[in-house]
Design goal:
The complex is a heterodimer of chains A (364) and B (129). Chain A is 22% helix and 33% strand. In chain A, the strands form four sheets. Chain A has a six-stranded mixed β-sheet with strand order 11-12-13-10-4-14, sandwiched between helices. By secondary structure, chain B is an alpha+beta fold. Chain B has one domain: Beta Barrel (OB fold (Dihydrolipoamide Acetyltransferase, E2P)). The chains are: A alpha+beta (364), B alpha+beta (129).
Chain lengths: 364, 129
């Protein structure tokens, strides 16, 4: 069964091109926009994304935060209530079930935003592990999620009377038109911005107000096509491409989101062993220097020998070049020249450390 | 909601290419408004080489958007006599002017009659519905 966002009718009315995202029928791009224009709107002013397909779940009960901390990789001890954290849900063998954002409301109340397709799996695993008194609830269709991304985000939110200017990765719970909405300083584009989590039924009204407020700044609704080019320019991993059952956080360069010193988290033993062995392939950026666009599963070669594989690849609207994330042998270093096999055509590229573009998402 | 145009003076293929007859046995080829709209923003085009000999149905190039790749097929048999070099630096011309500056390549065709076997505007429009 295909799920639809609370904004679905609006996307159809706008004539958006729709596609399946993790079982949800979501907009790829809008007429009058297109991936490149929408991408540039975010980089230069502001863009609005319906990301209501993202999962929502709560972990509640005495010690909910401690319980979550024993399961997921990152260390909730690093943050205070009112802050959010990027973390991973791993298998015992270190494979990634999902990457997600954890909102720490209090010691006894944690809110999770997993990926659409993985929400049920995350909820199931937490539920199976939860001790007496801890309740996990799947709230996938209780809330919408609207991302407001770009330098003009503050102006757009302010004009609606919503709170702005809080620290990167912090959130404020407020009300709009008498209904609750969470305003979190997070995003998946690298630009200054916010992700709003309104009650499901409030989402349409909030979206309409945001679209109207963004227009004077040259802002516009943006589809998930632009979201993908924006995140790839930042080198942010996408679960299913750059993270997954066979691509651990150690390989993906996401080890910064692991609390190695914690006594336990799912996959700790396997990940610690892989980290110590220093043998696995590592995720790197590839900046195409020739002509061509790398795509997932394209082979990467040095002197004709295979050294890795592209996990995400696209055209960078900002650089006007092909860019990719690739898992490469450790013998390949940043700065090395490689060849990408793009459907039989050899495309030259340089190994880089993402991001591919300069932005300051943390700026206060 | 479609305001896409399919000019009457062109011929069309099932692969969403258009063919414009020249007056010296050559034809000019590109992709239709429908094709460019379905692809989205075109960001890369690879074309056959001048002098290449193509059979009808040969895959002879690629057109890529940010998200996807499509093959370009030769609608007719012939020899490539020109390619649109402007698409190397301005692939977006395929979106903005698919029947004009967004043309892709020209063929000296072997069999002028084969052109008449392709769909006319009415037939192509019908095939899309």
């Amino acid at each position: 069964m295909t799920m639809t966002s609370p904004l679905h009718d609006r996307h159809i009315a706008l004539g958006a091109k729709m596609a399946d995202f993790g079982g949800w029928d979501m907009p790829i791009e809008y007429p009058g926009g297109g991936v490149v224009r929408e991408h540039n709107a975010v980089r230069t002013s502001v863009g609005l994304f319906d990301v209501s397909h993202l999962g929502k779940a709560s972990v509640k009960g005495p010690g909910a935060a401690d319980f979550t901390n024993r399961c997921l990789t990152n260390d909730l001890g690093r943050i205070e209530p009112g802050k959010a954290q990027y973390t991973l849900c791993c298998d015992e063998d270190g494979g990634v079930v999902d990457d997600l954002i954890v909102y720490l409301r209090s010691d006894d109340d944690v809110f999770l935003v997993p990926n659409a397709a993985n929400t049920a799996a995350v909820v199931e695993r937490l539920t199976a592990a939860a001790p007496e008194g801890i309740v996990i609830e799947n709230l996938h269709t209780s809330y919408g999620v609207i991302a407001v991304q770009g330098t003009k985000s503050d102006e757009v939110l302010s004009s609606l009377g919503l709170p702005v200017g809080h620290d990167y990765m912090s959130f404020v719970e407020t009300e709009w038109e008498g209904l609750p909405v969470i305003v979190c300083r997070t995003g998946y584009t690298g630009e200054r911005g916010y992700e709003l989590v309104p009650a499901w039924d409030l989402s349409g009204q909030l979206w309409d107000a945001l679209v109207a407020a963004a227009e004077p700044f040259g802002g516009m609704p943006c589809g998930l096509g632009a979201r993908d080019t924006l995140r790839t320019e930042m080198g942010y991993p996408l679960h299913g491409n750059d993270l997954g059952p066979d691509i651990t956080p150690v390989m993906a360069g996401s080890a910064w989101a692991i609390g190695w010193d914690k006594p336990e988290f799912w996959g700790k033993q396997a990940l610690s062993a892989q980290r110590a062995a220093k043998e696995s392939r590592l995720s790197r950026g590839l900046l195409v220097t020739g002509r061509g666009i790398p795509r997932p599963h394209c082979g990467v070669l040095v002197d004709g020998q295979p050294v890795g594989e592209v996990t995400s690849g696209t055209f960078s609207p900002t650089l006007k070049q092909g860019i990719a994330l690739a898992l490469l042998d450790r013998s390949v270093k940043v700065g090395d020249e490689v060849v990408i096999d793009v459907r039989g055509r050899e495309v030259a590229a340089t190994v880089t450390k993402p991001p591919f573009v300069e932005v300051d998402v943390r700026e206060s | 909601m479609s305001d896409l145009q399919y000019p009457d003076d062109l011929r069309y293929t099932e692969d969403h290419e258009w063919v414009r007859a020249g007056n010296d046995g050559t034809v000019r080829i590109g992709i239709t408004a429908f094709a460019q709209d379905a692809l989205g923003d075109v960001v890369y085009v690879s074309l056959p080489g001048v002098g290449d000999t193509l059979a009808a149905g040969d895959s002879c190039g690629e057109v890529e958007s940010t998200k996807s790749v499509s093959d370009i097929y030769s609608p007719l048999a012939g020899e490539v006599t020109a390619v649109n070099d402007a698409l190397e630096s301005s692939p977006e011309l395929v979106n903005t002017d698919p029947y004009g500056d967004g043309w892709m390549y020209e063929l000296q065709i072997e069999d002028a009659a084969a052109l008449d076997a392709l769909m006319d505007s009415a037939a192509y429009t019908q095939s899309l519905s």
